[in-house]
Every structure is written in C-alpha cells, then in structure tokens.
Amino acid sequence: MNDVANIRTPSVVEFIEADLKNTGFAMSSDRLTGSLLRTLASSKPGRSFLELGTGAGMSTAWLLDGMDAHSTLVTVENDLTVHEMAKRHLGTDGRVEFLLVDGEEFIRSNPNRRFDFIFADTWPGKFYCLDEVLGMLNPGGIYVIDELSPVDTWPTEHLNKVTRLVRYLETQDDLCITKLSWATGLIIATKIK
Ligand SMILES: C[S@@+](CC[C@H](N)C(=O)[O-])C[C@H]1O[C@@H](n2cnc3c(N)ncnc32)[C@H](O)[C@@H]1O
Predict the structure, then answer these.
(1) Residue 66: is its pLDDT beyond 90?
(2) CATH of domain 11-22+30-191
(3) How far apart are the CA of 193 and the centre of ligand 1, in A?
C-alpha cells in the first residue's frame, strides 16, 4: 500500500501551497494528516467542528472537503497574515467562520459551547487549556492532535511537554484514544462519557 497514492488532494490545497511559497510559514499540516482529517470529518454529517490554529487554511481545506453541507466549522487563529490568507482561499464557503482571536481567549469565553470534532493544532487546546477544550467535546465527539512524534530539532523542554501531554491523554477515563506513529504522530481521541 502506498499512503499517498490517489489521495485526491483538494485543488485548493495546491493553491494554498503555492501562496505559501517564499512566505516562511512552514507549519501547515501534511497531506496524510489532511486526508485523515477529511475521512474523520466525513463521519460526522450535520455536526459542529472546531479548529484551533487555522494557519493558512491547509487543514481547514481538508476538513471542509470531508464535511457535508449541513456541518459547520469555527476556526481560530491569532496571526492576521495567515488568517487573511486562509480567508482568501476558503472564505466563500458559508460553512466556515474564521475568527482572528487568541485560542485561549476563545476557549475561556465559550465554556458552554459544544463541538463534535476538535482539531487542536496550536498551543491552547493542546499544551494548555486542555481540560477546557476536552470539556467542549460532545459525547461521541472526536479530538485530534498531531506533531507528537519526536524530531531531532525539538528542545528537551518541548519533548517533555509532548510526553506529559500523551501520558495525560492516556490516563483519561472519559476518552478512548488511539496513538498513531504515522505522518507527524497523531492521537485520535473520542469522548466516551
Ligand atoms: C501548526 S500551525 C496551524 C496549521 C494549520 N492547522 C494547518 O494545518 O495548515 C499553528 C497556528 O497556530 C497559530 N497560533 C499560535 N498561537 C496561537 C494562539 N495562542 N491562538 C490562536 N492561534 C495561535 C499560529 O499562528 C499558527 O498559524
């Protein structure tokens, strides 16, 4: 099996990649992660999605490609440049709301909001405000994080942070988790209580 053969990349992903060339922004999700997000998104018709860390809209594009016409997505970013880039490519899609706000501020000001799918691709909701974000997940909802497989360039402090995060998720009784040493290293968790 070849993981990337016939992956059917949405054309907007290629436009975003082209736009990102020479910008120095290198934090976009890879295509494997994108395809996984799309598959998971397609399992939740008519549901509400949250993405923390829009970046330039790469993972947003894959999520939207999997979501049905009745699903909605809120995506949160605190950097104006990439927020604008994502909006330029995806802003005409009425299912998605682009928020330019700090992720922690969004989480703390929406304690009663609930989502069926959360992709936490930035610091808040992953390395801090984790309980708060997991609390925003409906029963049966899916929580996804990536970039968990260690790379040589990580400082020890970051390695320790990731190790603590993985251990914490492993020990939560209300989550059913799978760890994938694939792509950049992912955890998929479902809320079971
Ligand atoms: C890993 S990148 C997101 C990539 C994007 N999800 C994708 O796959 O293309 C993380 C993003 O989070 C943003 N960010 C960093 N700190 C943040 C914060 N406190 N609140 C909201 N966004 C933040 C960064 O500007 C960056 O665009």
Answers:
(1) yes
(2) 3.40.50.150
(3) 29
